[in-house]
């Protein structure tokens, strides 16, 4: 979230799209109600009429997978009627930047952007990659980007944006999305009102936007709208992701994903053999003196991270050499890992705090992949479908070689530590009770694993033999708890971990006129150094644990801002800044665009309010100032986004599995840069695809319910929750039920090209048919939380031989495809094709 949960109350217009906050993030609705009490308008755009839709002032349906078309129509509407915030757009975005005249867009280039190298097939380009040469900015002799502040040059971003989305007319968008034109216009006209300088609009999205082959571009499209309307950096504005777990933000910050290391630093590549080469490749450069180009500090953050990992005794170059490197052009995403596992490319797998046989796309393939392992370590609170995959449906245990180890771990309230929520607020949690039995905190399990590995690598035998690269393990710095007489950490102390993440001075230094001694905690990341004299496990969290104490543990309730910043409650990265890019919330003189809810204000030559996004004076100060979007090399918000894999502007492409035989906008059917798992030559149904297939005529999507948590591991065995949501169900419209002869409560089979799923039919008015390209299309929905263990063969209480209540069904991912977003490889679980039939 660029803003935070409480800030929702400051919005004048709230767009819930790709999310259902009332049902899936119920606490967020507290702040939505606060906004509504002050006169805000809530808009719900969703394929299904949800509880959020019921509470909304305005609801519009749309076919899953058509969000870019819907939002592209809004962009056209805003531009055509000149409803954008012109001063903001001109000064704070790249709308005035001039792009190469050789750049071509899909409307003039067979549905793709210029620079594509790809195989051309009957359905368009596939297996493509873009050469971005023509996407470049025009620059003058000093390397400064050329701009046209009138924004009338045909090569400037604003004019290109107009040209690109000129094809997204109301008729076209309605025919693609199935949204009636009057609903489109109502949403567009209402949300565009947030473009007034003293008004703001916020968007609340979740996996309804991300889990698509164009997931990143879904969010990009809304980001463009927020920039056009001047909603970034403002109270009640921003682009805000409603995370599905309390610590998704924190785990991502600390490098849950394969392509980053802590603090969103880049994972080194094999083509970057030296630390110098790595830093040069990772550090952006600009000649514009007005650009803060904050990532120019990259070497400070990478050096400090290496110092935390390997200490001062190991030269930085050696420490860098110890880091694993990605092979160039290879991704290590979830889908790739399980495909490689399925093809027997590796033999062991740690499943840590997850349940991939239920949560992973194309679950049958995932489950079969586990049968090919030599060993599987399942670290979790309880046994689950992953640890017991060999017991599952269709499995023959006597033929499965995989040896499974269960390591029981402590639940969140059985250990101390921090979480960082969606709004970037790091909050400390204390241990309430001891973990039961042999369950232990994850950190202690990792610690034991490290101690044993270090001993093996330090000794004799295979682990320390010739050709074994032992140094990355043996020389790893491990200062995370009290030690025994052999120098090994006995147990993990979360406070010591938090301090290491914050970072230390490693030698006596004078910085900014202040003397720091070796061993002092670094006050914030502006004190980090590239010369190896500081450490920090994550530069973004430098300032979270200082000599003043544990900032995340603070619980002060004062709010001098009056708009809900609460700067003394917990700690927020970066630097306790509650709303990022907040210098865009003021005009060139530092006065708030919305004086009724100021985030910051230039007053008596200082900023007051939130921690400013850079302490420079307002832009009216000229060379003493800096552009407000400091994390962007150019210092401006990206309406034109040249950094993405699949295009600098969003474009509507059909999902991989679509009910249509063509893309209504162009000859290019699906995004040309996605990795096509259905093209890998497998002859079984592991990667099968069904597009415009009469055997699978119904659109399907997945979603969550309030009563269950993720794959249901912690909730399906609770009788009161299971009574509320006892089993897998499929929501279908009355029209489809009549067509299929299905009655409410009957058992049906949901079938895709990959598998079949048993479910209870829930006939409902929440789904209505869509009219798309002149065709009547039906859509259904299934929840995400179930697994094979919720069948009649496994009651809630194993001691109960004749339970009164049984559940049945399996994971929704039995029927989802394995296909991923071109940028992130997140699976497209929100739209695919199925059939629904009565169980024989």
TrEMBL record:
Keywords: 4Fe-4S, Calcium, Iron, Iron-sulfur, Metal-binding, Oxidoreductase, Periplasm, Selenocysteine, Signal, Tungsten. GO terms for biological process: anaerobic respiration. GO terms for cellular component: periplasmic space. It is found in: Periplasm. Its EC number is 1.2.1.2. The keyword tRNA processing does not apply. NCBIfam families: formate-DH-alph. This is Formate dehydrogenase, alpha subunit. It comes from Desulfosudis oleivorans (strain DSM 6200 / JCM 39069 / Hxd3) (Desulfococcus oleovorans).
